[in-house]
Amino acid sequence: MTSIATRQVCVGLQAVAGTAVNVDTLLRATCDLKPSVSKIHPEENIGSYAPARHYVGQIMPEGTLKMDATYEQILIPLSMALGNQTGASGNGAPYTYTWPLPDDVTDEPTFDLWTIEYTDGGTYVVRGTDVFASGLTISGAAGEGWQVEAELTGGEVDLPDALSASPALDDTVTPIKMAETLLYVDTAYASIGGSNVEELISFNWKLENYLHTKQYAGALYPNGRGTAPWQVTLKLVLEVSAAEAQTFADAVLTTTQYAVRVRGYVDANDYCNIDGMYMVEEVDTLDERDGNNIIAVTLKGEKDASDNTGSIVVVTDVVSY
Prior knowledge:
Elements (H helix, E strand, L loop, with lengths): L7 E6 L11 E3 L1 E3 L2 E7 L14 E14 L6 H8 L12 E6 L13 E6 L5 E17 L5 E7 L3 E2 L22 E6 L9 E2 L2 E9 L2 E4 L9 E4 L3 E9 L3 H9 L5 E11 L2 E14 L3 E3 L2 E11 L7 E7 L5
Antiparallel strand pairs: 1-2, 1-7, 3-5, 4-5, 5-9, 6-21, 7-8, 8-9, 8-10, 8-13, 11-12, 11-17, 13-16, 14-15, 16-20, 17-18, 18-20, 18-21, 19-20
């Protein structure tokens, strides 16, 4: 008998599209990767009450990857959702990875495509090829750690008898904690990270509508990938006592932009900055938390007059993902 305790999610970065690789990384994650099959049932009049024919029109892997964020393994869902990073810098640890949000087509990244294998311990395996994330959410609440959720899609999918490899779990990981998270709000992107907001309770950063699959005639599996104008939403929950809370509430009536950084920071060797330019889209009415007043502010990502859009930067001791 199998158990949820035996579930594993393993991945491997592909060199080329359409060619699966042996997995080499065991993620600290859960996954519901599955084959998504479109079966076509023609409407036939064949002298019978019963349909007699069907065929498969399309097959692709779909699912959701969920994980507690660590500075080492957050690189993988970021790669899935934002493409190939701009390069780990430095001659030794720590290494810096930067994923800019593109301004135009000249900024488009190269797709990072992954082979992902989901198993209950070896008896049941689902393997997806050319897997990437069509959406990504990073969130955190006071007293907890960051959470990452990636919406997966991809190319071919099959159900092999066993994993392609059995990578070992990396025990040397550093969690991204809300207790070590700071929020900065500034008036210009050039000064981002200058003004700390003390009363952050929770955040939810979401990327949508950026990377996607394409389907063309002559193929059973998706055989193309594309990009579209991204949408980024950042939702902040703040104590009303924060001066910025009142500023945000006022700004819902204006078109003022803000440079916002959510920063997870252990030290100079382990940190993550989620940067962006935003305008206030919505402010929820007053709510209560532990007898104190709070508000929820929804920010929409934009670019400023200098084409600054924002980026995600991760510094860690991992030389490559």
